[in-house]
Amino acid sequence: MAFDQGAGINPDLQKERNNATFDPAELTYIIDKGSERTRRRRYLQYLALNDPDLAETDPSFLTRDEVYSSVVRRSVILVKKMKELNLTDPSDQLIYKGASLRGDGSIFAIHDLMMIPMLQTQADETQKRKWLQKAMNYEIIGTYLQTELGHGTFIRGLETTATYDPSTQEFIINSPTLTSTKWWPGFLGRSVNCCILMAQLYSQGKKYGLHAFIVQLRRFDNHELLPGITTGDIGPKMDMSGNDNGFCRFDNVRIPRENLLSKYAKIDPDGTYHPPISDKMVYAGMVLTRVSMVAMAAGSLSSGCTIATRYSCVRRQTELTPGGEEPQIIDYQSQQLKLFPQLAATYAFRFAAHNIRTRCDQIQADVRAGDISSLQELHGLSAGMKAFSSLATSMGLEVLRLSCGGHGYSQASGFPRIYSGATALVTVEGEYSVLMLQTARYLVKCVAKAASGEKLPHSIAYLTAKPESKCPAKSENDILDLEVLVNAYRHRAHRLVNEAAEQLQACLLSGKPQHVAWNESHMVLIKAADAHCHYYTVMNFVQYLQSTEMSQPLRDVLTSLCQLYALYGIENNAGDLLQDGYMSGEQISMVTNQVAALLAVIRPNAVALVDAFDIPDEMLGSILGRYDGNVYENLYKWAKESPLNQTEVHHSYDTYLKPLLHQSHMEAKL
Hints:
Distance between the termini: 70 Å
CATH architecture of the largest domain: Up-down Bundle
């Protein structure tokens, strides 16, 4: 779908587009991985956004029940529409769903993101024949039950049990404590009728750890709960009113032996247990989800940058000279410092998401062929990058919201919805610190392997060779060299990862137990994992530039963005590079000077860079970020639609204010 670029475009915004030095369409094609994919995406978005059956009322003025009902209605309609349109390709379906729901999410979101992939990767062939096609046809609707009231990221501590009874060849599912209540699963409260349940498997008196089971929660004919199952909605959240995140308890619920997902782990009829080839196999579905969340974070930051950048070109404020014209606020360096580092991070995360997805697909293919040697790399990379990108996105969106001043606080800005969704990514499917520690555990193991001469995967190969000890930059031009920047991040990651491993080892050698040593090293371990992810992101950005075909004007713009992302990160972590003398105070000053210089370089192309994200207004959901830039008239129009404005005198006046005011008036007369 192409945006309307005819009459009515705010002149300040049109001027920005006219002055761009590159064609945004070229960058859009790169983001979409080809012009044909862009054409297909726009076509599917057009179909969804212009379908009256999928129209929605502005959720800002709806109750939670109305929002949820709207989400259910459109979720069901879009499934019917996809069948009518014969949309069978997962990428096509994802695009169509995104345009149909416009940021609200679908009651099938976790079903698509978690349940179907778990059946595809964890179910044996018999189970696939029984469940997979039904799930793909939406004959059953599922969610993923892992997090509990008392345990989240520490999944080994989950308390829900699945005890095998050989006399009936059934598992008995139980919630033995209040804290074992499943809590937070998306669309569990009222929407789904099945789930993938993560529970501790017991057989023949032994505990075999966490395993995945498929469990029916509700009757298929009338949606009533099955005996022994209690579910409900957990109540209002920061936002996401259309998602009935739920709780669930099990009281001696029996399921057939065949409901243990058995591609890797199996139970014989007599209760004999056969473990998987790797205990990491049970987490494969979660790893895939974390990989997708890097792209989700990039998408959220893209929306925030689009809103704040366009609005900054429309908004004029504070005359620089008495009686002069108020400048666009994007011309203030302080505003550019809020906008452009976030814009650079958006592209860094988008390109990182491309790379991680490709690597994930390669490793998944290896696993299907029986090669699990790269599973640990994928687990470490997906955990760290999900944590790193989601936290940076959450913090970045708040900076972007603040850059819009008071209007950024309004629901009309779109920021409340975008921020609440993005900040959830910091905790969902693994809280930031815990995931960083998982990555750190992998890094520490890699340090030991590097010391013994083992070959390491590409993403961690920097640990096998000592990097240069001094930054070679002698001028401000040198500090812009991409190889110099990558080397600085490589040096930082190499040092911090090795020092974290050394501190952990020193704690162990001092006689402290493993768990004590690990806990006392959390600070350096998390910092090391963060440095590793930062290095990976910068390295990948540079490699993407070097390996992707593009015009020279576009290459110049993206190179400036890459330089800004790297230099801004160095400036904010200068202490790490000064501490061991890798960089001098003079070199850090060069970095600061070049950050300021790059703001001015990027300024003429800021709008073109966000236009390249090609986000339709209906999906952006922001009056401040409208493509046409007509902000003020539409803010006024939106405010008039508030239910509080539908009567001249609100009903509360007669009930509360009138008696008070009349009493005061009478007392004044007396």
